[in-house]
Amino acid sequence: xxxxxxxxxxxxxxxxxxxxxxxxxxxxxxxxxxxxxxxxxxxxxxxxxxxxxxxxxxxxxxxxxxxxxxxxxxxxxxxxxxxxxxxxxxxxxxxxxxxxxxxxxxxxxxxxxxxxxxxxxxxxxxxxxxxxxxxxxxxxxxxxxxxxxxxxxxxxxxxxxxxxxxxxxxxxxxxxxxxxxxxxxxxxxxxxxxxxxxxxxxxxxx
Length: 206
Fold this sequence. Notes:
By secondary structure, the chain is α/β, with parallel strands linked by helices. The protein contains eight helices and ten strands. The longest helix has 10 residues, at about 35-45.
């Protein structure tokens, strides 16, 4: 693996695995990742907000959130693939995020707690594509701890969240099942969910 560094169009210094043909390719070729989602987040975010991101990948959105909410807010960032943790840590540090204002978790957000099998492409080809779905091209598998947001919020004594963003590769409906108490007692002001057309049908059923 070789680390590559780019300055994004939003002005962030982002490190990533140069073998990555998913988010890494977007950063390498376009110097940005999901500009429409970035714009949506920027419209929603305010200083002092409490924000949770599920599926943070290299931390592009983490950096955007940390800059927007400042030192009076807090970010909880989840990513199931442990190979991405060093990049997430480095990217927040090198973009000036205050370590007291964010919490990085290597956990899968799911409907309950335990361990779950995750699958991804070999050799760092698409680290952000790690998912609970077993597909022919995802030949690497590993176990990761999973947690529901209801359980995590209770255990960690989280304050009410202002915004939740989930892009967890097909497990969004499972995550919604695991946050029923939160949605009833202290729903976030806004939620951003990314899913495929097939997975959206499951989400609509919720």
